[in-house]
Amino acid sequence: MRLRNITGSKDMIAESPLVIHEPEMTKGKWKNVFGNNHDLHIEIGMGKGKFLYTLAGKNPEINYIGIEKYSSVLLRALQKMEADPLPNLLFIRMDAEEITEVFDRGEVSRIYLNFSDPWPKDRHAKRRLPSREYLARYDQILKKDGILEFKTDNKELFEFALEELPFAGWEIVKKTFDLHHDMEMMEGNIMTEYEEKFSSKGNPICKYIIKR
Ligand code: SAM
């Protein structure tokens, strides 16, 4: 994602009531933050957040947290949402590498990865969000029957993600190399910003749903 340096974005985020500022203090206590016992779904690398905002609006009985590494990107999401915030949607600015510091064992019911950065060089494979290293982290925070959903238009990244599954002890529930022409998997699909951009160029969208 191209980053523009937005002056003061860190300060603006620090003042936002929609952002959890010391998320590690909330590990194991996310139900208290939302004030209910609803399931918790998270998106890692949410970008400008349209996907999660739409989802949270449609499902008030589910709690959502959007995780984004960069302040300048998170700020864009906040600017759109602060005028009409949703009680079941909060944000964390963090690197997903630290995810096990923030969520307790089994605390998350579903994880979304959408159009994750491909990190094309082999030596950077560990940084890819669907890599076996990240799957091991997700394994720690996801509840027993929890699922992970991943979408991308990058076929190489998708094939890499599929190859990682047996090493990490995960298995496919459903998969497609052309989501927008798969009626079953397309049902209820919410387009992300990147999905709109790349599908409008004619790129097929790959998706899997996985479990352990
Ligand atoms: N999910 C959005 C979409 O589909 O429109 C944005 C996709 S964008 C290509 C990937 C996003 O993931 C960027 O905003 C990037 O900053 C974020 N990201 C990449 N690595 C991350 C990490 N380790 N932790 C948190 N966010 C990350």
Helix content: 25-40%
Ligand set: S-adenosylmethionine
Global Rg: 16 Å
Strand-residue proportion? 15-25%
Report on the architecture of this protein.
With about 210 residues, the chain is of the alpha/beta class. Helix content is about 35%, strand content about 20%. It contains 9 helices and 7 strands. It has helices at about 10-15, 30-35, 50-60, 70-80, 100, 130-140, 155-170, 185, 195-200; strands spanning about 40-45, 65-70, 90-95, 110-115, 140-150, 170-175, 205-210. A 7-stranded mixed β-sheet has the order 3-2-1-4-5-7-6. The longest helix has 14 residues, at about 155-170. The model has no long low-confidence stretch (mean pLDDT about 95). S-adenosylmethionine binds near residues 46, 67, 96, 97 and 193. S-adenosylmethionine binds near residues 114 and 193.
Any descriptors?
single chain; 212 residues; alpha/beta; seven-stranded mixed β-sheet; 9 helices; 7 strands; 22% strand; globular; binds S-adenosylmethionine
Chain-wise SSE layout:
Elements: H1 9-14, H2 30-34, E1 40-44, H3 50-58, E2 63-68, H4 71-81, E3 89-93, H5 99-102, E4 108-114, H6 132-141, E5 142-152, H7 155-168, E6 171-176, H8 183-186, H9 193-200, E7 206-211
Parallel strand pairs: 1-2, 1-4, 2-3, 4-5
Antiparallel strand pairs: 5-7, 6-7
Helix pairs in contact: 6-7
Short description:
The chain is an alpha/beta fold and 212 residues long. It has helices at 9-14, 30-34, 50-58, 71-81, 99-102, 132-141, 155-168, 183-186, 193-200; strands spanning 40-44, 63-68, 89-93, 108-114, 142-152, 171-176, 206-211.
